[in-house]
Write a structure and sequence with these properties.
Number of strands: 13
Strand content: 15-25%
Largest sheet: 5 strands, mixed
Shape: globular
Catalytic activity: 4 porphobilinogen + H2O = hydroxymethylbilane + 4 NH4(+)
Keywords: Porphyrin biosynthesis, Transferase
Oligomer: single chain
Number of domains: 3
Strand order of the largest sheet: 2-1-3-10-4
InterPro entries: HemC, Porphobilin_deaminase_N, Porphobilinogen_deaminase_C, Porphobilinogen_deaminase_C_sf
EC number: 2.5.1.61
Function: Tetrapolymerization of the monopyrrole PBG into the hydroxymethylbilane pre-uroporphyrinogen in several discrete steps.
Length: 307
């Protein structure tokens, strides 16, 4: 019998809360619990507080997880819900990604009040993005555009778009869907030409290693296929030394007992791209990711990201 609330740690943005609520709903259904059996613990992270410069200049992805992971380690919370693409590839000792929810649509959404597609924007139009990966991909497709850093949560970026600060922006379609705002999308980018971030669309749940009770609670909602895909993609990213300082993309697919992957690294100005593809057994997903990451890193060379 549940005697104390299960404490779910999360950032405080609307999207982060929607992901925490989805996790709570799945756990409640799996265990016959109610919302009262859970406590949503909102934790303000350093990344949420930095709005005046790119995260790559401030310390990278870990800025969105540091305070939440400290709460896990001091047992202030039982589990933490994250957007997998925000997770560093190296976690603090004693913590691990214990479960994943089924992955959402991985595509990037193009949003503009004036045109339907990126290719329709006039020369010199301003496109805002906080992602170095998206910035490089936009410049690769449209080197004539003015691509600017565009920080803030989803609502802030949409408001800036309405105010005319930029002519267009990109957001993860998965996030818009989770917020019930999929109708804001002007068009969706084909993954063949606009490969998503590693982990995009996947909600990951972090917990203390060795916490058997939390592992038992999470087991019924864990999605094994998403875990296999993320094991491959995160291993690839780790070998590439990927962070939000690096324009790296990658996406895996599972078909039966096989897993396929395609990845790329792009010069920040979009002028050059190196790609990698491979496939293997799902059971070897993590090792395949490491091999492909090493291969792409060797192909691109040590000075590739220097402009």
């Amino acid at each position: 019998m549940q005697t104390k609330p299960i404490r779910i740690g999360t950032r405080g943005s609307a999207l982060a809360l929607a992901q925490a609520h989805e996790t709570r709903a799945r756990l409640a259904k799996a265990h016959g619990l109610t919302d009262d059996d859970f406590e949503i613990v909102v934790i303000k992270t350093t990344g949420d507080q930095i709005q005046d410069r790119p995260l790559s200049e401030a310390g990278g992805k870990g800025l969105f997880t540091k305070e939440i992971e400290e709460a896990l380690l001091d047992k202030s919370i039982d589990l933490a819900v994250h957007s997998s693409k925000d997770m560093p590839t190296v976690l603090p000792d004693g913590l691990g990604m214990t479960a994943y929810l089924p992955r959402e649509d991985v595509r990037d959404a193009f949003i503009s009040p004036s045109v339907e597609k990126l290719t329709d924007l006039p020369q010199g139009a301003v496109v805002g993005s906080s992602s170095l990966r998206r910035q490089a991909q936009i410049k690769r497709l449209r080197p004539d555009l003015d691509v600017v850093m565009y920080r803030g949560n989803l609502q802030t970026r949409l408001r800036k778009l309405d105010e005319g600060v930029v002519d267009a922006t990109f957001l993860a379609y998965a996030g818009l869907r989770r917020l019930g705002q999929g109708d804001l999308v002007t068009s969706l980018m084909d993954v063949e030409h606009f490969l998503p971030a590693v982990g995009q669309g996947a909600i990951g749940i972090e917990a203390r290693l060795g916490d058997e009770e939390t592992a038992r609670i999470l087991a019924p909602i864990h999605h094994a296929e998403t875990e296999s895909r993320l094991l491959l993609e995160r291993a690839y990213l780790a070998e590439m030394d990927g962070s939000c300082r690096t324009p790296i993309a990658g996406l895996s697919h599972v078909e039966g007992d096989r897993i396929r992957f395609r990845g790329e690294v792009i010069k920040p100005d979009g002028s050059q791209t190196h790609t990698i593809e491979g496939e293997g057994l799902v059971s070897d997903a993590e090792e395949l990711g490491r091999e492909l990451g090493k291969e792409l890193k060797a192909k691109s060379g040590p000075n590739f990201l220097e402009l």
